[in-house]
Structure formats: structure tokens, C-alpha cells
Write a structure and sequence with these properties.
The complex is a heterodimer.
Chain A (H helix, E strand, L loop, with lengths): L2 E8 L4 E10 L4 H14 L3 E5 L3 E4 L1 H15 L5 E4 L3 H10 L6 E3 L2
Parallel strand pairs in A: 2-3, 2-4, 3-5, 5-6
Antiparallel strand pairs in A: 1-2
Helix pairs in contact in A: 1-2
Chain B lengths: L1 H9 L6 E8 L5 H15 L3 H22 L6 E8 L3 E7 L24 H8 L2 E7 L3 E9 L4
Antiparallel strand pairs in B: 1-2, 2-3, 3-5, 4-5
Classes of the chains: A alpha/beta, B alpha+beta.
């Protein structure tokens, strides 16, 4: 299955909102990385990732998120992840990444 | 592999189906393997949560085989599913150069790397995992998920 990512900059809150649809794995992670690093380059601000329609992510996708976060931390920005499905939320818990990113229920 | 064969021979009554795949080392096929694994797991009777665990674990193992195992263009790696009545065993075997480290550490928040999470995730999600890696001969990951174990 493919991956589609909607991106939008919320001018009011000064934050990027990224919404991935589908699966982030070894095949689609490079595309995700390109988009994530591109939005950071375009506008260096906090990022919200809405996981409502993210069906699958594995270590390659988590690696991309980590590299994005590292870039943002240079300027004291952060990544907030919202609406994760239970199976994906579990991955964040077992890897401890729920303490690295801001993971919120809603 | 040898070990599994012996086990079966010892007890002929063991009801096990063996499904074999040989996959090209291309990332675009990993989702097909995940779908195959979830179909087999569903047939055995695993619940949705367990199927998700199996999907992630096999995805990680295949990613590992493609990233670190296959070093030639057009190389392949093998996947064996052993479907029992009460468990699913999956073996992923590549013929690459072998992993340099099987020292799987729990990820640390203050020292995050972009790689190295895969094997840790497999160990956490499956009930039993055996890694065998041989310099220049490749890596075998044998992982088992038991039916009805929390």
C-alpha cells in the first residue's frame, strides 16, 4: 500500500500539521523523510503529526521521525504526535519514543 | 531449520503447514510479506492485536534482510512460515555479510539513533526469537508467536 501525506501550515498557531495516510515502511520511509525535512527547511516551526489514518509504521518510519526531531531540536522546536491507533501507540511505548516525542491522545 | 525438521520427525502427529517464499531484496515487496503473514496468522486464529505484532515483527525482519543481509543487486532472501495449530514460527534467512552486532540494547531517550530499533522491536513483540548471524554467510531470524499467550 502506498503512502500519502497531507501537509498544511497553520498560520494562526504557527505550526505544521502533517497527516500521513497509509503505511510508513522501508519502501515509503524515504518519501516521508523527504517531506518531513522539506517542511522543516521551508519553515522551521513545531510539527504536529496526525496519526488518525496512519495504518502502519515500523523502525524505518520511527527513524525518520527521530531524524526530523533531531533537526528541530537544534532550534528548540518539537514534534507532537496525536490520534495514534492502538497498535502504533504500542510501538511508541515499547521503544520509549512516547517520552521523546510529545504523544497525545487527541 | 535443522532443529525444526528434527522436531517434526520426532513426532509425526504434529500438524504443521510449511509455506515458503523467496523474495527479491526490494523494499516494495515487504508489504506483500506483511499481508501474507497476517493472512496466515488469521488462519491459525490469532487476534487482531497479535496479528499486528506479527506484521510489525516480520516487517522489521525483512527490512533487516534487505538493508543488511543482501549485498548483491537482484539478491533474494527466504521466508519460511511454519503454521502450527497453536503457534506460528517464521524464519527469515538472508545470505549477506552478517550483522556486525547482535548486542540488542533497549533504546535510550537521551541517545537516540535512527537505526537499531528493529531487532529490539522484534524481541519485544514475539514470544521467542533466535538470531543467528555468521560473518559473510548471512543472518537467520527465527521467531515464534504462541496462540493465546498474553
Amino acid at each position: 500500500m502506498a503512502l500519502k501525506i497531507n501537509k498544511l501550515f497553520d498560520e494562526e498557531k504557527k505550526v505544521w500539521i502533517l497527516k500521513p495516510y497509509g503505511e510508513i515502511d522501508i519502501y515509503t520511509a524515504p518519501k516521508f523523510k523527504e517531506i518531513l525535512l522539506n517542511v522543516i527547511e521551508t519553515r522551521d516551526s513545531n510539527i504536529i503529526i496526525d496519526g488518525k489514518d496512519l495504518e502502519y509504521i515500523d523502525s524505518t518510519g520511527l527513524g525518520v521521525l527521530i531524524s526530523g526531531l533531531k533537526r528541530l531540536k537544534e532550534t528548540d522546536k518539537n514534534i507532537t504526535i496525536i490520534n495514534l491507533r492502538p497498535n502504533i501507540s504500542k510501538l511508541f511505548e515499547i521503544t520509549g519514543l512516547n517520552k521523546v516525542f510529545i504523544v497525545k491522545e487527541v | 531449520m535443522e532443529e525444526i525438521k528434527e522436531k517434526v520427525n520426532e513426532n509425526e502427529e504434529v500438524n504443521m503447514d510449511h509455506i515458503k517464499l523467496s523474495m527479491p531484496n526490494k523494499p516494495e515487496y515487504v508489504s506483500i510479506i506483511r499481508l501474507t503473514a497476517s493472512a496466515i496468522a488469521s488462519r491459525i486464529g490469532f487476534n487482531i492485536d497479535d496479528i499486528e505484532d506479527i506484521k510489525v515483527a516480520i516487517g522489521e525482519a525483512c527490512t533487516n534482510a534487505i538493508r543488511h543481509g543482501c549485498n548483491k543487486i537482484n539478491d533474494t532472501y527466504d521466508i519460511d512460515f511454519f503454521a502450527y495449530e497453536d503457534k506460528l514460527e517464521i524464519k527469515i534467512k538472508d545470505t549477506g555479510k552478517g550483522l556486525c552486532s547482535l548486542n540488542i540494547k533497549e533504546p535510550k531517550a537521551e541517545d537516540l539513533k535512527e537505526g537499531g530499533l528493529g531487532l529490539f522491536i522484534i524481541k519485544t513483540l514475539m514470544d521467542d526469537v533466535k538470531f543467528t548471524t555468521l560473518q559473510n554467510k548471512g543472518t537467520i531470524i527465527l521467531m515464534t508467536k504462541m496462540l493465546g499467550v498474553e
